[in-house]
Amino acid sequence: MTHSIPAIVILGQASLATARRIQQVYPAAQIHGLAGRVEGADCSYQEFGATLRDLYQHNTPIIALCAAGIVIRTLAPLLLEKGAEPAVLAVAEDGSAVVPLLGGLGGVNVMAREIAAALQVAAAITTSGELRFGTCLLNPPSGYALADLESGKRFVSDLLAGHSVRIEGAAPWLDQAQLPEDPQAQRSIHVGSAARQASANELLIYPRSVAVAISADVGDLPEAVRAALLHANIALPSLACLLAADTEMASMNLHEAALELGVPLRFVAAQSDLVALAAVAVSDAKIVTADNLAVAIAEQPLDVATIGRRRGRLAVIGLGPGAAELMVPAVKAELARCTDVLGYETYVRMAGPFRDEQVQHCTDNREEMQRARHAFRLAAEGRSVIVVSSGDPGVFAMAAAVLEALHESDDPAWHSVDLEILPGVSASLATAAQAGAPLGHDFCVMSLSDNLKPWSIIEKRLDLAAEADLALAFYNPISKARPWQLGRALEIVGQHRTAQTPVVLGRDIGRPGQTLRATTLGALTPDQVDMRTMVLIGSSTTCTFPRADGSSWVYTPRWYGEKPAS
Ligand code: SAH
Where are the bilayer-spanning segments (predicted)? Predict the structure, then answer.
């Protein structure tokens, strides 16, 4: 069962090491540390109770490294409310005990076992059905689906009360359970893919053993799939996946249908028709055709991951300036699910930690086109690939290189990849926010690097942007290979701005050892700037005033010319 990204909540510094070990199991999970008590957590909170209740109400699984009693008392007021019940676990701060508390149907026992395995202890499972029978009938393994939860609960309590049970159909996982089996029993567990009404003393479990081959030009696909299953007398929960020809990989119609039906979509080489396609994809299956679709019915649950392949994905992501709090949640989720990460080593490291099976391809900063093509080759194989940039991937970073590589390619497999660009907080915006609002009015963003554009163009743009009285943000302001360019740039800007014009220098913003400095154009010299610095130069209206902490605020007013009456 897949659960959403959990939150790891800690109260003291002593818990951080255990929290990091748990984070290895859920790399997208953030460690929330109590402000003032924990240094080095991914984010901090002020108030334990409010934080825990807020997470709970947002259906976020909670792993709290503290006494079970504290968690119970904190969440108690919410427990009578109907609604979300995420998994909630208490873990001893030294990692010696893992106690699942709430969220039995949210997979809390599964999580408890995963965490316990990572910490090399036993999970404190207390669910009677699960303990007595060695399995949770209500939470069958991934190849099986329970028909109805409410009748399932009644069924399990009957068994706990002493009733015996018969098993009809094949479910190897149940053979290992210690169920009170008796061939004469009144109660039965029926395992099979046929659509059927459960009788009074019956627990229905469907094996996910059926695949339906579909084609992109069928209208209302979800309805067509349901009709085909009905025609083949197959219960909907037995549907394990949809199948389609790899020539139709980019069809939104197919992907939307899979999404609506809640099953994966797998692609195989195109065949003469859908019956042939289904037969190639699922060997030893009975094939039934209905309404132009082909239904492949196997005896056992399908191992979907081995059928054909999935549509590959390529996400070009922005990490933001560095701090985990400034990374957008969509990027975190993407990092958690990817199979391959490509990028400049520093950024790949910043994006981690990754699980062992996630492959890291670190490259030199300059090999952008090679990296982009490598990413497409991997994604075209069906892998889920991330290309990392710092800040925003569309700002002097990998997104344009990736699109260039795709534009140059006529490989249909590359064009079929599910390509998405996920934004990040760019260095200019992160720096501006710390300084106040120097980019609060119109501004111009430039890279001072002349690696990929002639210096004459840079001079011309600088001149025009400065003349237009735009605030300026300089990326790549200087480097060993480009020592004099910044000085020349400042000369050009100086022709249009006074020496008092406010300037902000942000270095390693959002990273350890960050520095922020407000100065003026007249006082700015290139030796105050290096390649890890963001340079913001104000317009004629940008102003500064003292902050209570002794530094200063820098901002550019929203208006221009005369201040409007307020
Ligand atoms: N895509 C990135 C920019 C890459 S260009 C973004 O959107 O932020 C690299 C330049 O960005 C550096 O030379 C520096 O000028 C600036 N930069 C990147 N990260 C920075 C940070 N954390 N602090 C200050 N400047 C940074």
Answer: none
Backbone φ and ψ for 73, nearest 5 degrees, come out as -65, -35
Task: Write the CA distances from 19 to 58, 227, 265, 305, integer angstroms.
Answer: 21, 48, 35, 31
Instruction: Quote the mean pLDDT of the chain.
Output: 92
Mutational test site, ligand 1, from 534, 536, 537, max ligand atoms within 8 Å of CB:
534
Which of 263, 281, 306 is the endpoint of a domain?
306
> Taking the complete model, does pTM exceed 0.90, yes or no?
no
Q: For residue 518, give the DSSP letter.
A: E
Q: Note whether 420 and 327 are same-domain residues.
A: yes
- Residue 516 CA: distances (Å) to CA of 432, 433, 479, 535, 536: 10, 11, 19, 10, 11
Ligand 1 atom closest to Cα of 514? 23
Token pair for 169: 């159909």
What is the rounded distance in angstroms from the CA atom of residue 265 to the CA atom of residue 353? Answer: 29
What residue owns the CA closest to ligand 1's atom 17? 427
The predicted-structure confidence for 322-349, as pLDDT tens digits, reads as follows 988 899 999 999 998 999 999 998 899 9
- Residue 135: is its pLDDT beyond 70? no
